[in-house]
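Example record

One chain of 260 residues, shown exactly as stored in the release files.
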Amino acid sequence: MEQYKTLNIAVNERIATITIDRPEAMNALNGDVLNDLSDAFALIARTDDIGAVILTGAGKAFVAGADIAAMNRMGIMEGRDFMLKGQAVNDRIENLGKPVVAAVNGFALGGGCELAMACDVRFASEKAKFGQPEVNLGIIPGFGGTQRLQRLVGKGMAKYLIYSAEIIDAAEALRVGLVEKVFAPEDLLPQTTAWLNLVLSKGPIAVRMAKAAMNNGANMDIRSAIAFEAEAMTVAFSSEDRAEGTTAFLEKRPAEFKNR
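Predicted structure tokens for this chain:
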């Protein structure tokens, strides 16, 4: 993998672990981080040997938010361009044709919470903290947070968290549906890796089509979403994976998928 100014990337057995590495700034998102993330995920999309991604942070934070000092120097149009860049990065992560898990090791606030929400699944350390505190600064979540948060936790809870700027711990994030699992800090990356290895043992085309069906269907009416699901199912059904999966089931053996 390429070298980046603000990221460390390690690839092991088809899983790329991307660590945002600005610990002196609690991994705050600035233009450099957003550019590096955009480039790294574009490269991963083109790399067949990588089947899944873990996104995490160095030090005590996942991402403590956007870089407020940098934002304070921005004019109106610069601020708008920064928000659009953040949205584009999160869209790229959300629509990557491979599973992406946020391993939230510490603070995930503002843009950091929005970054985690763009991932398919969120696993958290017991020490993690979540929140959208933008209204404290006289702004609102601008990297997609007003939309993704309500889709994850419901409209009422999303408004409660955004209006109040309340910071919640990992247990509360699990309770409201913002994260899927909570682990002891030392278990976070091993458990995330183990889960992704499980996912990678499944039919890769099926996982990709399931992601496409869920992501696209979330923005459609139910009839259109079911129609999209039928097309995604047809792609999976026509693949070699389906033939191997059904044959392996009937022969009572593990499937050996080749289209990885």
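Notes: The longest helix spans residues 76-94.
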